[in-house]
Amino acid sequence: MSERVIALVDQRHPSWALPTPSTPLQLAQLPLDQLQRPLRDLRISVTDRCNFRCSYCMPKEVFDKDYAYLPHSALLSFEEITRTASLFAQRGVQKIRLTGGEPLLRKNLEILIAQLAALRTPEGLPLDLTLTTNGSLLARKAQSLKEAGLQRVTVSLDGLDDAVFRRMNDVDFPVSDVLAGIEAAQAAGMGPIKVNMVVKRGTNDHEIIPMARHFRGTGVVLRFIEYMDVGATNGWRMDEVLPSAQVIERLQAQWPLLALQAAAPGETAERWGYANAQGQHDPALGEIGVISSVTQAFCGDCNRARLSTEGRLYLCLFASQGYDLRPLLREQAASDAHIAATLDAIWRGRSDRYSQRRSELPPEQGSSPARRVEMSYIGG
Ligand code: SF4
């Protein structure tokens, strides 16, 4: 095991006690958390497995052949996921992102997508349904995902140079297959298609310009993500973080960029548009984004909750514990009203703002890896 990767302390099992809803559900009164943030965005992990071993997320030294993945019986069924999602939609959720591990590894995912695509908000609107994938299976699945009701997709791609990409996914997977997946998603009529690149200083930051050049003017929105101290195993160090401000500087040395408005409240990406000769944003040239959880925390309007593949609810990407909803769905056979009221009570008690606090926390507690749940378990 390389000296930097930290052995896993299995964080999947400790849970907070479920709050007992004190008052009957106030349907019209959507919950706000302790920082007055609404519940708008639900990320659902549909598997804890992945066919890549990106070192910043699932280092192969830890997630090796002996790693105990969750048995299928422990995973929420598609019906349980859809029921839970519909109750979240009742309590304010407008956007659902399917994640993993690698979500396209979950068999018959199209069935779940069709079920989620049929859900409506209390106002009768469809949910904004999207998915984050490593793109390895996208070329094969794009058409069926679109037909099932998936309108858009985000693909993780950490470099264009094949050797760099193979090193970062650590399973020797060729970049050409992921690029073919992005093209297949475009051909299937999905959009907007976003590409997320995690930037690790000294590992792939030299790929920033080639990636931008490749996607500029293609309609694909490229976002650069600061390398984060997620989970407990990636051996994160601050000196491997390239602040987004420097990413923008590098891009502006190549192309004129304009700051753009956020597309929606709670959006994680800061948007920059490519400018034309008159200095205005040229939509045909497109835009890029930066996601700066380390240097420009965005906890202030974070409206995201995360559901793990076996039904634990986490209120922050950097959480150490969650709330186990599965007994409500199974053993306790709780009513919709009771589950919705429980979701309300959980959200109202939320005060998470790890990224904001990261710089305030004393070093011995700050980025103390042993306490956080793995990103591959609750989705990015
Ligand atoms: S650190 Fe937690 S609270 Fe802050 S933006 Fe990320 S998920 Fe939200």
- First-residue to last-residue Cα separation: 25 Å
The structure class reads alpha/beta
Total helical segments: 11
CATH class: Alpha Beta
Rg (C-alpha, Å): 20 Å
Name the overall outline.
Answer: globular
CATH architecture: Alpha-Beta Barrel
User: Would you report the number of β strands?
Assistant: 13
Low-confidence stretches: none
> How many domains is the backbone divided into?
1
Give structural notes.
The structure is a single chain. The chain is an alpha/beta fold. The protein has a single domain, classed as Aldolase class I (TIM Barrel, Alpha-Beta Barrel). It has helices spanning about 80-90, 110-115, 140-150, 160-170, 175-185, 210-215, 245-250, 325-330, 335-350, 355-360, 375-380, and strands at about 15, 40-45, 95-100, 130-135, 155, 195-200, 220-225, 255-260, 270-275, 285-290, 305, 310-315, 320-325. Strands 1-13-12-11-2-3-4-5-6-7-10-9-8 form a 13-stranded mixed beta sheet. Strand 2 (about 40-45), helix 1 and strand 3 (about 95-100) form a beta-alpha-beta unit. The site of iron/sulfur cluster has 12 residues, from helix 10.
List keywords for this structure.
binds iron/sulfur cluster; 380 residues; alpha/beta
Brief synopsis:
26% of the residues lie in helices and 15% in strands. α1 crosses α9. The radius of gyration is 20 Å and the shape is globular.
Q: What's the topology here?
A:
Blueprint: E1 15-16, E2 41-45, H1 78-90, E3 95-99, H2 109-117, E4 128-133, H3 138-148, E5 153-156, H4 162-169, H5 175-187, E6 193-199, H6 208-215, E7 221-226, H7 244-252, E8 257-259, E9 270-274, E10 287-291, E11 304-307, E12 312-314, E13 322-324, H8 326-329, H9 336-348, H10 354-358, H11 375-378
Parallel strand pairs: 1-13, 2-3, 2-11, 3-4, 4-5, 5-6, 6-7, 7-10
Antiparallel strand pairs: 8-9, 9-10, 11-12, 12-13
Helix pairs in contact: 1-2, 1-9, 2-3, 3-5
The chain binds iron/sulfur cluster.
Iron/sulfur cluster (SF4) binds next to helix 10.
